[in-house]
Amino acid sequence: MPTAMIIGASRGIGLELARQYAADGWRVHATTRTPTQPGKLGALTGDLVLHELEVCRADHLAALATAVAQEGIDVLIHNAGVSDRGLRRDVVMRINAEAPLVVTQALLPALLRSTPKRLVLMSSQLGARCDHSAS
Ligand SMILES: NC(=O)c1ccc[n+]([C@@H]2O[C@H](COP(=O)([O-])OP(=O)(O)OC[C@H]3O[C@@H](n4cnc5c(N)ncnc54)[C@H](OP(=O)(O)O)[C@@H]3O)[C@@H](O)[C@H]2O)c1
Q1: What are phi and psi of 32, to 5 degrees?
Q2: Is the pTM of this model over 0.85?
Q3: I need a surface site. Which of 12, 27, 64, 70 has the fewest CB within 10 A?
Q4: pLDDT tens digits, residue range 68-120?
């Protein structure tokens, strides 16, 4: 059975990805910041495993890597991201630009244990924008 890991699956695009992979018979590791209140993610059917992950928390990331230490991840999708409304710029950069690299690095051993080894990083203009007017 193929396995997907969806980082940031509590709502929006990540939730729908988790739903569709699970409906297609994949094993789905889905991360959320609120596993005790999973909302719609908790109502999905299929082979789903929920993990707590705030992408800026090293302890959460270490626990996630340990949880899949014996598994291969065929498709790793880093979907978690924020808009810049109401958040400090350094926080936005940590979540949108730094976390995808740190999370990928932590889960790389599991990704390399699979055959297809597919990595998907959801991007946005927010993760790429360089605001020259601020300098
Ligand atoms: N929708 C669009 O039109 C669009 C366009 C371009 C790019 N994108 C990108 O596509 C991705 C998903 O977009 P979306 O519209 O589905 O976004 P969304 O509905 O706001 O969902 C964002 C997801 O990321 C999670 N998340 C945010 N910050 C996190 C953190 N610090 N640690 C862990 N999880 C975190 C959220 O969890 P919580 O529920 O806990 O907040 C949620 O599951 C984002 O990376 C976004 O930048 C979207």
Answers
A1: -150, 155
A2: yes
A3: 70
A4: 999 999 999 999 999 878 899 899 999 999 999 999 999 999 999 999 999 99
Instruction: Output the residue whose Cα is nearest ligand 1's atom 19.
Output: 12
Structure tokens at 45: 């059917």
CATH no. for 3-124: 3.40.50.720
Contact 30, 49 (CB under 8 A): yes
**Which two three-digit tokens encode residue 102?**
């740190």
Show contacts of 94-97: CB within 8 Å, 24+ apart.
94/56, 95/55, 95/56, 96/124, 96/126, 96/127, 97/127
Residue nearest to atom 13 of ligand 1 (CA): 13
Domain locations in the chain as residue ranges: 3-124
8 closest CA partner among 70, 71, 53: 53
Say if residues 32 and 50 touch (Cβ distance below 8 Å): yes
Q: Specify the ligand 1 atom closest to the Cα of 53.
A: 33
